Amino acid sequence: MKHFFIKFFLCLLTISGFGQQTKDPAAELLSPIKKPRPSGNNLSSGYSAPKKIAVRSSWSLDANLSFLYWMPMEDNLEPGVILNTTQATSTKGKVIDFDFEYKPGLKVGIGFDMTYDNWKACSEYTRLHSHMQINPSIPFGEHISPIILSPQITSTNNYDSVVERWNLTLDFLDLFLSRSYFNGKHLTFSYGFGLRGAWIYQSLINQFGSIGNSVRGVSTLNGIVDSTLKSDSWALGPRVTLNGNWMICNGIRVYGNSGIDLLFSRYKLSRKEFSTMSNFTYTLKELGLNTLKTHLDLEVGLGWGTHFWNSKWHIDLSAGYGFQAFFDQNMFRTFYDANSFTGQTPNGNLYVQGLTVTAQLDF
């Protein structure tokens, strides 16, 4: 019995000593008292681990070039309505829709990895200049009733032809800070904030004509009316972004990008119309119109990246389709009725959708 108690006592000492030497790491991490605070390189498990492309280079730079194939679209660019007046009991009308097209553009950017908390300083320039034109054919017995013209330039609404040209230039310069971090083993997020400068120019040129014979079954003689509407603006304001990447395998990823900005915008607006029939010119100018405009963009796509040259360089290729909305960007004045002289603004939104193909080099 004596030897039994001695053995039992020795077992208790062994278990006690073992218990003092081992600790539960999970319990220590969950403890609010023992959990260390982030200080320098001593970061707790709650710190979002930065996502960074590591290359064997001291430059800490990246450069990207994007080919854009975007389609700009805008509300309320219809020049007029085609009317059928050959039937005495009714009048049939069809709105002349503007046919929008994809146009090429480019985007260039550069980024610098900073040592402060793994933030990154970036700049991007986006350029899209487009020109589109429509020239609809008018069937026999039908004529055009203009929508875009001011009531002061014409007293009748019968024209045989119309040619409309829309010119649009978009130039953006973005300066911002961003930080990428892991939100799991295969999911990363990147948020950023900064400034956007925007220069948006639009012009809408119309020419309505009437030959005034009976070939089309319309007995009118209105001559030619030339109309030119212009909207020139610059804008500046804050911009925030949130991007996500889901790593699949072998450098392949699915990504989604989003951004929103609110810009102080200053406009110069003008309208000039001339009728050869009445030899009358209508001119309207509005200089220094100040307002706030909102812009929203979303993009989803697929990317792939890999190291090369002994890991001194890293290349990333991606392709995505995006959608953008420039709210209340159509500032061409519309008219209430036949007695209106100045009209109202704004007159609709500007939209952009299309393909973006990007190549990025880290070095």
Structure overview:
The chain has 363 residues and is mainly beta. It has one domain (55-362): Beta Barrel (Lipocalin). The protein is 7% helix and 57% strand. It contains 2 helices and 13 strands. The strands form 2 sheets. A 10-stranded antiparallel β-barrel has the order 1-4-5-7-8-9-10-11-12-13. It has a 3-stranded antiparallel sheet with strand order 3-2-6, with no helix packed on it. 22% of the residues are buried. Residues 4-43 and 213-219 have low confidence and may be disordered.
Gist?
The protein has helices at residues 2-21, 25-30; strands at 61-74, 80-84, 92-95, 103-113, 120-134, 142-146, 161-182, 187-210, 223-249, 252-275, 280-308, 313-326, 350-362. The protein has 363 residues and is mainly beta. The radius of gyration is 32 Å and the shape is elongated.
How many structural domains in the coordinates? 1
The spatial strand order of the largest sheet comes to 1-4-5-7-8-9-10-11-12-13
Given the structure, what is the number of helices?
2
Low-confidence residue ranges: 4-43, 213-219
Radius of gyration based on Cα positions = 32 Å
Rough outline: elongated
User: Would you tell me the overall average pLDDT?
Assistant: 81
Element-by-element helix/strand order: HHEEEEEEEEEEEEE
